[in-house]
């Protein structure tokens, strides 16, 4: 397929915006949700230079947004010891939790906007907000300012860019979809490593403000690369003229098995982020040098890369849900023992194993949902999942922080591990759900009857 520069988002920002809004105002009328193309989309190529450039662009955008978010552990410790030392652990954790949560909360809306063809506009707006919020965090000096710029604005920006990164992959990959999602999900830990190491190296010399300004420059470069490489294969987007049908629960979303799966991921998220957000705090309590905290965060993020690649590769052969159950079970085990390891070496080892297990979970949890629906409905369906998960992301870490403040990190670890244990049980149950006498599986070995043309593993 010939590639033209006009196919890419950067060819003309003003042309893209004027064309999009012009079509919305003057084009033929279609109800939102009634997908109409000027020609049908061809089957995913499952490879090739264009497809892998899209993967590279998605990875870069995930580094800019998700990488910053998963680096929260270094900010939690720094704020507690410096600029926000007068605030409690739980108060500070709300900044990270809101950032996590808003990275998912609006995804039902942004995912549907992606389905309706607004991918370029989402990338432009989200990228601008990512860079701006990072820069404004650099000049913040009050709790409310950090909460707004780093928590609210950056979180919203991440959600705006997240929908295109998830929705575009099924357009390019079918058999290798699990692997493609696993590779793009590596952007989060790669960005986490980059930001953590940069913070450790630069903050003592440039100070917090200089370091964060540098982060904003890095974010700008990554977003620019993503905008140049992300490409939507749909030849024409449907035109949104009526809002009511925008969020109709149809197809896979009407299946009880879908909601059981969502319940499992929701429950896992109540505890899954606890070790990641408090890993340096607990390390300091057993004698781990504070100056090495950012490197511990970077090491955990490195470990997630191995988990993402390993599970993503095996999921092509054995199915994503099977690997999800295994990786979530491992997360449960390491979360339970995380706070009870007395030695620094043992703690580092457990943290890395937890990171590898968590990497398998994060690389695959969207894949079963993406494979249940047609390619033109991926954004809305995954967006609904992420919107619901945002509630767990928002309340889970502060609950753990409150438990740690009033009892101990041991109690917080037990709470988090138990949440994940319940999720493992629900995931196993979701493999064979009986609804109205019909067996419904989320194993993805067999797609739902109405979507036989979509990937099987």
Automatic annotation (TrEMBL):
Its main location: membrane. SUPFAM superfamilies: MFS general substrate transporter. Keywords: Membrane, Transmembrane, Transmembrane helix. InterPro entries: MFS, MFS_dom, MFS_trans_sf, Proton-linked_MCT. One of its GO terms (cellular component) is membrane. It is found in: Membrane. It is a multi-pass membrane protein. Residues 257-457 form the Major facilitator superfamily (MFS) profile domain. GO terms for molecular function: transmembrane transporter activity. The chain crosses the membrane at residues 51-72, 92-109, 121-140, 146-167, 179-200, 212-230, 251-272, 292-311, 323-341, 347-370, 382-403, 409-429. Belongs to the major facilitator superfamily. Monocarboxylate porter (TC 2.A.1.13) family. This is MFS general substrate transporter.
């Amino acid at each position: 397929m010939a590639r033209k520069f006009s196919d890419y988002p950067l060819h003309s920002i003003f042309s893209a915006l004027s064309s999009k809004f012009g079509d919305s105002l003057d084009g033929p009328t279609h109800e939102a949700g009634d997908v109409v193309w000027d020609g049908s989309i061809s089957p995913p190529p499952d490879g090739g230079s264009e497809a892998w450039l899209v993967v590279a662009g998605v990875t870069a955008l995930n580094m800019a947004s998700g990488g910053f978010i998963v680096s929260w552990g270094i900010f939690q410790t720094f704020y507690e010891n410096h600029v926000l030392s007068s605030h409690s652990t739980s108060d500070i954790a709300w900044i990270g939790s809101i950032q996590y949560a808003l990275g998912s909360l609006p995804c039902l809306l942004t995912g549907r906007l992606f389905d309706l063809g607004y991918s370029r506009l989402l990338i432009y707006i989200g990228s601008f907000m990512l860079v701006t919020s990072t820069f404004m965090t650099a000049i913040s000096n009050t709790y409310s300012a950090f909460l707004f710029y780093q928590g609210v604005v950056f979180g919203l920006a991440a959600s705006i860019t997240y929908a295109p990164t998830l929705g575009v992959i099924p357009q390019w990959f079918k058999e290798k979809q699990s692997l493609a999602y696993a590779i793009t999900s590596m952007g989060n830990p790669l960005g986490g490593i980059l930001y953590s190491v940069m913070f450790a190296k630069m903050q003592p010399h440039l100070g917090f403000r200089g370091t964060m300004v540098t982060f904003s420059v890095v974010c700008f470069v990554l977003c620019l690369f993503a905008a140049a490489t992300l490409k939507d294969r749909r030849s024409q987007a449907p035109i949104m003229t009526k809002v009511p049908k925008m969020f109709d629960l149809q197809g896979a979303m009407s299946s009880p098995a879908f909601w059981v799966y969502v319940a499992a991921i929701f429950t896992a998220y109540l505890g899954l982020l606890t070790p990641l957000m408090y890993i340096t705090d607990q390390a300091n309590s057993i004698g781990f040098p504070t100056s090495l905290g950012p490197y511990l965060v970077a090491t955990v993020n490195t470990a997630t890369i191995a988990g993402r690649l390993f599970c993503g590769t095996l999921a092509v052969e054995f199915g994503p849900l099977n690997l999800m159950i295994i990786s979530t079970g491992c997360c449960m085990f390491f979360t339970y023992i995380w706070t009870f390891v007395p030695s620094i070496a043992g703690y580092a080892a457990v943290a890395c194993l937890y990171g590898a297990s968590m990497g398998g979970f994060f690389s695959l949890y969207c894949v079963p949902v993406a494979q249940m629906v047609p390619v033109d409905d991926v954004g809305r369906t995954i967006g609904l999942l992420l919107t619901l998960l945002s509630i767990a992301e928002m309340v889970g870490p502060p609950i753990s922080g409150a438990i740690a403040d009033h009892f101990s990190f041991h109690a917080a670890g037990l709470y988090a591990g138990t949440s994940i244990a319940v999720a493992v049980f629900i995931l196993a149950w979701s493999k064979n759900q009986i609804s109205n006498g019909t067996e419904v599986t989320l194993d993805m070995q067999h797609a739902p009857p109405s979507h036989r043309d979509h990937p099987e593993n």
